[in-house]
Write a structure and sequence with these properties.
Shape: globular
Largest sheet: 8 strands, mixed
Number of helices: 15
Radius of gyration: 23 Å
Distance between the termini: 26 Å
Bound molecules: flavin-adenine dinucleotide
Structural class: alpha/beta
Length: 490
């Protein structure tokens, strides 16, 4: 079989991979391939179909800047609308003929001699690629809790990101493990239909009111015919969100008004003083992801819902046993315990210049890269949503677009300068990370008194960006070739 060569191989078809395809095409690249292990575009929004799934950054901002959507019906769009939007953008930008679905990257190995990536795909083919652009997602691989006996449970069990729509929950006894962003969207929906719901909480999150509303007909007409109106909405939301950054990164006291709003949300939603106390967080606001909901607390306060805060000891064939010895019987177990964030699964599949995988490279010191996009030892690898690019307050699509500008400029520079490969120099990457982690010291994620999924096994925050998003965009506005070791094409 002959091996296909492409200039760029893109992995994943979520906001990142699709955005990469669109931006590559726009910049005149004609020889790229996108591989996606799922059957459609959308990534997060294809996979998270649980009841109540919706974005928690307003859609006007949580969408591509180059593809505004006049059809959003609400400020925080539900999953089907977001998925339909991504699909429509993919179709209208005419890139889908370059996508190979149901095809996973199994291994990408850098060939230093040939100066390209040799990529084995799950369809049995091998592709070589000058550059590898990974858009494999920071929150794409569900993380199951390591609880004694979980595999002995006889009822239905599924993760929030792999919802089993065949299971009818009406009149059932259901448990949800977790009180993170997905769980607080799921719980109010389940409360309406199940017989009884147990919600297992390890740490109480801060939950702000959700200022959600439907757009009026007039607004939607304006979005369609006066694009400037939609731009004004987007800009206002952007700066409103950016207002959180000083409280997160410089002085947690600045988040005092947000904390008061969250505490008032508890008082408004819950009447039982004991329950109020159990849902009141014991750490600084912002330390863990701030959630938004108007319905979560009232759902917890309902007669058919119990909040369980005793630690889970084990799972049996028919229920959950907590440390106090109580067993609660259930028919269905929903696991809403998040994703592999600090050890990105794709890292096991990428083998760099020295024959080590990205995961092995990161095992000792944790995830690290240069500008969240490139990694020393991995020439011509560009990671969208790489180390320290995550946000606690604003739209990841903003970050993705900033990275795409940088990557496309890198590819343009390589072409112009006749470069076969670029790889961030070790000392430049070290300096970048020293600066990041120096800044991280004073953030609420470090000082706020919580342990969160932002932190890795070494206690280092390798997931979040500790500055403003406009600083990130500024730093990635153009490719800084002199930070890179360069090999000239033969
Ligand atoms: C429930 C939920 C709600 C969220 N809400 C928001 C929000 O409101 N605002 C916000 O900013 N962010 C939100 N996020 C974060 C969200 O993940 C990002 O905003 C964004 O969707 C990430 O896009 P992505 O393309 O980087 O990754 P993904 O959307 O995860 O896409 C990655 C794709 O890569 C594919 N893939 C992975 N490995 C391989 C492989 N080896 N071979 C081939 N294909 C592969 C996956 O199948 C997937 O389709 C949310 C996340 C979740 C889970």
């Amino acid at each position: 079989m002959t091996t296909q060569h492409v200039q760029q191989l893109v992995v994943g078809a979520g906001f990142a991979g699709l955005g990469a395809a669109i931006k590559l095409q726009e910049s005149g690249e004609t020889d790229f391939l996108v591989v996606e292990k799922g059957g459609d575009v959308g990534g997060t929004w294809r996979d998270n179909t649980y009841p109540g799934a919706a974005c928690d950054v307003p859609s006007q901002l949580y969408s591509y800047s180059f593809a505004p959507n006049p059809d959003w019906t609400m400020s925080f769009s539900p999953q089907p609308e977001i998925q339909a939007y991504i699909r429509r953008v993919a179709e209208e930008s005419r890139v889908l003929d370059r996508f190979r679905f149901h095809t996973a990257l199994e291994e990408a190995r850098w060939d230093d001699q040939a100066q390209h990536w040799v990529v084995t795909l799950s369809d049995g083919t091998t592709v070589t690629a000058t550059s590898l652009i990974s858009g494999a997602g920071g929150l794409s691989e569900p993380k199951l809790p390591d609880i004694d006996g979980i595999d002995t449970f006889q009822g239905e069990i599924f993760h929030s990101a792999r919802w089993n729509h065949d299971v009818d929950l009406a009149g059932k006894r259901v448990a949800v493990i977790g009180t993170g962003a997905s769980a607080i969207q799921i719980v109010p929906e389940l409360q309406k239909v199940v017989d009884h719901l147990d919600v297992y909480q390890r740490t109480a999150p801060y939950v702000l009111p959700r200022h959600d509303r439907s757009y009026t007909r007039l607004e939607r007409l304006a979005f369609r015919h006066l694009p400037l109106v939609q731009q004004v909405y987007r800009t206002a939301i952007y700066w409103g969100r950016e207002g959180y950054v000083p409280g997160f990164t410089l002085q947690p006291k600045l988040a005092w008004p947000a904390k008061q709003m969250a505490l008032a949300n508890i008082r408004r939603g819950i009447s039982d003083p004991q329950l109020r106390e159990r849902v009141t967080p014991t750490f600084e606001i912002g330390c863990k992801r701030i959630l938004i909901s108007n319905t979560y607390y009232p759902a917890l306060d309902s007669a058919n819902v119990d909040l369980v805060t005793d630690p889970i000891a084990k799972i049996t064939g028919s229920g959950i046993v907590t440390a106090d010895g109580v067993e609660r019987e259930i028919d269905v177990l929903v696991v809403a315990t998040g994703f592999h964030t600090t050890e990105q699964p794709i890292a096991d599949h990428i083998v760099g210049r020295e024959g080590r995988t990205l995961a092995e490279t990161w095992r000792e010191g944790g995830m690290a890269g240069y500008k969240g996009t490139a990694v020393h030892g991995f020439p011509n690898l560009f990671q969208i949503v790489g180390p320290n690019t995550g946000l606690g307050h604003s739209s990841m699509v903003f970050i993705i677009e900033a990275q795409l500008t940088y990557v496309v400029d890198a590819i343009r520079t390589m072409r112009r300068e006749g470069l076969a490969s670029v790889e961030p120099r070790a000392e430049v990457q070290a300096q970048w990370n020293d600066d990041l982690h120096r800044r991280m010291q004073r953030t609420v994620w470090t000082t706020g008194g919580c342990s969160s999924w932002y932190l890795d096994a070494h206690g280092r925050n390798t997931t979040l960006w500790p500055r403003s998003t406009f600083a990130f965009r500024g730093l990635l506005a153009s490719f800084d070739a002199d930070a890179y070791h360069q090999e000239v094409s033969a």
